[in-house]
Design goal:
The complex is a heterodimer of chains A (344) and B (472).
Chain A: H1 3-9, H2 15-22, H3 27-53, H4 60-89, H5 103-110, H6 112-143, H7 149-157, H8 164-174, H9 187-194, H10 208-234, H11 238-246, H12 251-262, H13 264-279, H14 283-288, H15 298-308, H16 312-343
Helix pairs in contact in A: 4-16, 5-6, 5-16, 6-10, 6-13, 7-10, 8-10, 10-13, 11-12, 13-16, 15-16
Chain B: H1 5-25, E1 68-73, H2 77-85, H3 88-94, E2 97-102, H4 106-115, E3 122-125, H5 128-137, H6 147-156, H7 159-164, E4 166-167, E5 170-171, E6 174-180, E7 183-186, H8 188-194, H9 202-215, H10 234-247, H11 249-257, H12 266-279, E8 320-321, E9 343-346, E10 356-366, H13 371-380, H14 383-392, H15 413-423, E11 428-431, H16 433-436, H17 439-455, H18 460-470
Parallel strand pairs in B: 1-2, 1-3, 10-11
Antiparallel strand pairs in B: 3-10, 4-5, 6-10, 7-8, 7-9
Helix pairs in contact in B: 6-13, 10-11, 10-12, 17-18
The chains are: A mainly alpha (344), B alpha/beta (472).
Chain lengths: 344, 472
């Protein structure tokens, strides 16, 4: 933003106050500036709300625009505008200056290194949601109403509290490799050595290394799935369970015919939410392999192309591909959430 | 409909915290644009002509009281302390304030900041290739070097160093620190014990390699590691560059860098084969870590550590090619000296006569046209700064190609060795090729393909063809 321009609008403030606020260098000045901005915001919002509240029967559109307006402006500025710009640059060359048509898309789908990237992304999006949800569901059912429920749930939920980068570093140590004659530093290889197997280069062995990376994401997301599903299992009305029991259901039958159908909407929300998180996965790949050894995914490749190779066109193209892949999931997810709410 | 008070309050709180976040994101405004003066110069205590004691060398920069210069760089942590300390005297004598910001994400972030119009006043570019990108993509953002800076560079640096800071015949950036990359680290006590001589030709080095392999069947002669987070692969490019310089000569090297010959030219292929002979021979690598593939996952910082034996054991490896700055990686208490725990010898040339040297370094570029910025840029290219920096770097590990530097100010014998090679008129110095190539190659496919060369045992010709295909 051009600061001369901003200052022009603040000309009504006397010089010193203006400079004190706009040339905020010291922490003190910054705090004062923050307070002034908050006060301004509170003032404007209060004024708007007060105005809306004034007439006895405020018009619907007025209320709607005051409530939704600020959000819409922010979405427009922070989401819609960048999305349009990104889509536009995906049709331009590496410096965003020459129009190249669909060239970037052709490259992204035809070159072998990008095909590996797309294959890996597909692998992630297929495996992570299904496995994380399945493990989370089975775990939730197994520990439901047992004596150790709280402890057991805490244990599975804990990885959620760790950042993706933190989790990746932990797992990088787990997979660490040393030659067979040296003491192992990686947990998994040490276990292999104990049971008499040669240590393995987990991070290097293609294509299996992708699965070892996927395990990290499942480890993180299972806690999320377990928590949501456990809550919906609890919410199944007693009378349905009772009816099932009277019909002679128990164990696996109860799980198949009562539990799963009752929590179906929650299951789908969990699946799609994890799928979206997985499509955007970046931290794990970047931390563990940097996209080397055939493990790159779309989000990582997008970052590499945009910010390391400075190929803005190709970077934007990958971002658009990611965006297009996420849209159906978001739509489906929102519709399912509405259904869940209707049921309630 | 009436708005309930509770809801209103929630909306306000949410909004308020959003505003707080937004205000925190606003770019800091250190200086007014256009260089207009905020306050009247109160003419600080010192009248002109009367210079405080110890400030004689700084009088040329004048009185810069109340001015701030922001510096953005990839030099962080340990080295940052010495770096900042070397400006103390400048700040004290001129009254200017240097605001230093180091970032590991420097290379990606600098371009973002330049593009968004919030460039730092001064940036230390670790690669001439990055300077090229900035000049070509953002010609209005970067400021050509001040006259004083140019005069200093003409006086204190060899013409090739000035050339690396020049784009389209305009001189932009003066060299700061320098690296000397053509070193092989070794264990002097083992060399003495076994009677090994430091090799002076490539063939002698290969003979020594075979000798070590015969003497120590449980170890490997060489060790290497090229893992470096998201920059994995760069140490391998240095290896290759050093060999290209030796096997194909400086002329071919220059053509290779400028893409006058393709990346997959037979001359480059033959250099790769020379490196292949050491780096992908299971009998010669990777001491202490395992097979050839482990080179790709061994952190660069750990790559040479097996040279230091644990207790009375034999070392796991004996030779490690790495730049002078590898000296900072040895564990605390390691004696880096010719008669100490580790030392390095010059990676010999193949003909045994010429002395090609692979170097690197940072370049100081300015992004604001103001007297204080020009003065600071000039200061950093002077002999005054070079000697001051050498003095404050008490632990060693820093050299420069500035020939105004008095070698006696350097902290260690090893630094003197490195600076001596860099300053030797017989040395044929070439800048790190990957730093000169376009980012898509020099920080992209070259790294990536070298990693695959080790990790997957990818065919050399396929590696070269892939890099050539990625040249923008």
């Amino acid at each position: 933003m051009d600061w001369e321009y901003v200052k022009y609008y603040f000309n009504w403030l006397t010089g010193e106050i203006r400079d004190f606020l706009l040339v905020a260098n010291s922490p003190g000045q910054k705090i004062v500036l923050a307070i002034v901005v908050i006060a301004l915001f509170v003032g404007v919002m209060a004024l708007l709300l007060w105005l809306v509240d004034r007439p006895r029967n405020p018009r619907g559109w007025l209320v709607a625009s005051v409530f939704a307006g600020p959000a819409l402006v922010l979405i427009g500025f922070g989401l819609v505008y960048p999305a349009i710009r990104t889509t536009q640059s995906s049709f331009y060359d590496r410096t965003s200056s020459v129009f190249v048509g669909w060239d970037n898309y052709v490259r992204a789908f035809s070159e072998s290194e990008f095909q590996i990237v797309l294959r890996n992304t597909a692998l992630w999006v297929f495996l992570v949601p299904i496995l994380a949800t399945a493990i989370g569901l089975i775990y939730a059912v197994l520990v439901d109403r047992t004596r150790f429920e709280k402890l057991a749930k805490t244990l599975v939920f804990m990885p959620m509290a760790i950042s993706m980068v933190g989790a990746s570093i932990i797992w990088k140590f787990v997979y660490d490799y040393r030659q067979a004659s040296s003491p192992q530093t990686g947990l998994l290889n040490q276990v292999l050595v104990w049971i008499g197997i040669e240590p393995q280069q987990f991070i290097l062995s293609q294509p299996w290394n992708n699965f070892f990376l996927i395990v990290v994401m499942i480890w993180i997301q299972t806690g999320f799935a377990m928590t949501i599903l456990s809550a919906s299992i609890r919410a199944i009305p007693e009378d349905i369970i009772e009816a099932g029991r009277l019909d002679g259901l128990s164990g696996i039958g109860m799980f198949r015919h009562i539990t799963v159908p009752s929590i179906r909407p929650a299951l789908i929300v969990v699946l799609t939410t994890i799928a979206m998180a997985t499509l955007k996965v970046f931290d794990i790949v970047r931390t563990m392999t940097g996209g080397n050894f055939g493990t790159s995914v779309v989000a990582n490749e997008f970052y590499t192309q945009s910010f390391r190779y400075n190929d803005k066109g190709l970077g934007a193209t990958l971002a658009v591909i990611l965006f297009v892949l996420v849209i159906p999931l978001v739509v489906y997810n929102v519709r399912q959430m509405r259904k869940v709410e209707e049921i309630r | 409909m009436r708005i309930k008070n509770a809801r209103g309050a929630i909306a306000l709180t949410a909004g308020a915290s959003l505003a707080l976040v937004l205000s925190a994101c606003a770019p800091p405004m250190d200086e007014e644009p256009g260089g207009t003066d905020t306050g009247t110069d109160t003419g600080t205590t010192e009248p002109t002509g009367d210079v405080a004691e110890g400030c004689e060398d700084y009088a040329v920069y004048g009185d810069l009281s109340g001015k701030t210069v922001t510096v953005y760089t990839s030099i962080v942590e340990v080295e940052q302390v010495d770096q900042e300390e070397s400006y103390d005297k400048f700040e004290e004598c001129t009254g200017a304030k240097i605001e230093y910001e180091g970032s590991r994400e420097f290379e990606a972030q600098l371009l973002v900041r330049v593009e968004s119009g919030s460039a730092p006043d001064i940036a230390y570019l670790p690669q001439p290739g990055l300077l090229n990108t900035i000049v070509n993509d953002f010609p209005d953002a970067i400021v050509p070097a001040s006259a004083g800076t140019e005069a200093n560079v003409d006086q204190f640096f060899s013409p090739s160093w000035k050339e690396y800071g020049t784009v389209n015949d305009t001189f932009y950036a003066a060299p700061l620190g320098a690296n000397m990359k053509s070193f092989v680290w070794y264990n002097p006590s083992i060399f003495t014990e076994k009677g090994y001589a430091v090799p002076t030709t490539w063939d002698e080095m290969l003979a020594l390699t075979d000798q070590i392999a015969a003497d120590y069947p449980d170890s490997k002669p060489w060790c290497a590691g090229i893992e470096s987070g998201d920059a994995t692969g760069w140490p391998a490019t240095d290896w290759i560059e050093d060999v290209v310089l030796r096997a194909s000569g400086p002329e071919v090297y220059d053509q290779w860098v400028a893409h006058e010959i393709p990346f997959n030219d037979p001359a480059i292929k033959s250099a790769f084969d020379v490196a292949d002979d050491i780096l992908r021979d299971e009998a010669r690598v990777n001491g202490g870590f395992g097979n050839v593939a482990t080179i790709a996952i061994t952190p660069w910082t750990d790559g040479g550590l097996p040279i230091l034996p644990a207790g009375d054991d034999d070392p796991q490896c004996f030779l490690h090619r790495a730049a002078n700055f590898y000296q900072n990686n040895w564990p605390e208490g390691t004696n880096v000296a010719e008669d100490g725990d580790v030392f390095a010898f010059y990676l010999p040339s193949i003909d045994g006569e010429s002395s090609p040297v692979l170097g690197g370094g940072e370049f100081v570029a300015a992004f604001r046209d103001a007297p204080e910025v020009a003065a600071f840029q000039e200061f950093l290219s002077s002999d005054t700064w070079a000697n001051e920096k050498a003095r404050v770097t008490e632990g060693g590990g820093w050299v420069t190609a500035n020939n105004g530097l008095d070698l006696n100010n350097l902290a260690t014998d090893f630094d003197k060795l490195a600076a001596g090679v860099l300053g030797d008129p017989n040395s044929v110095i070439r800048f790190d090729a990957s730093d000169l190539m376009p980012a898509a190659v020099g920080a992209g496919s070259f790294w990536r393909e070298m990693t695959a060369w080790f990790a997957e045992g990818k065919d050399t010709q396929a590696v070269l063809d892939a890099i050539e295909a990625s040249w923008p």
